[in-house]
Specification:
single chain, alpha+beta, 5 helices, 6 strands
Length: about 160
């Protein structure tokens, strides 16, 4: 992902997550904080999808549409902020390809919040739901189907 892709990223996010809008500044900040783990699916004319991840504490959920102000000192996991594709880009293996890039880039657990009834997809990618009263409280703004999920990444030695 490059700064020139951000308008396209925002456009994809509006389609993919209409109930969870985020400002362009949030995407720009995350790109600046972790450029090596922000990817786009794009041709020369438009962005059709993106993946954004950054180091973050396990079981901490960054608030939606909020600037982080930097990365926290404790970074024992990676937070998969978004994986989004336009409808016309779905079904072609692009989500799995983006995840493969992330999985080969990091060697720590990866956490995410599953929204829009996507938990089965994430389970198929090796993510496992975690539940606790504290996590349920943090997930309230994400909707009733939201699940906090973690994938333990192991790289071959």
């Amino acid at each position: 992902m490059r700064a020139a892709d951000l308008d396209g990223v925002v456009a994809v996010a509006r389609v993919a997550f209409p109930d969870h809008p985020e400002r362009r500044a949030c995407f720009a900040e995350r790109l600046a904080l972790a450029p090596d783990t922000c990817f786009v699916l794009a041709d020369t004319e438009h962005v059709a999808g993106y993946l954004i991840a950054y180091p973050w504490p396990i079981e901490a959920i960054p608030p939606l549409d909020t600037l982080l102000g930097g990365l926290p000192e404790r970074r024992d996991a990676w937070y998969l902020h978004d994986l989004a594709l336009l409808p016309e880009a779905r079904g072609g293996g692009h989500a799995r390809a983006g995840l493969a890039l992330l999985f080969t880039s990091v060697d720590a657990p990866i956490a995410l919040v599953s929204v829009n009834a996507s938990a089965a997809f994430w389970q198929a990618q090796g993510f496992v739901a975690r539940d606790s009263p504290a996590l349920r409280a943090k997930l309230a703004s994400y909707g009733p189907q939201a699940r906090y999920m973690v994938r333990t990444v192991t790289k071959p030695v």
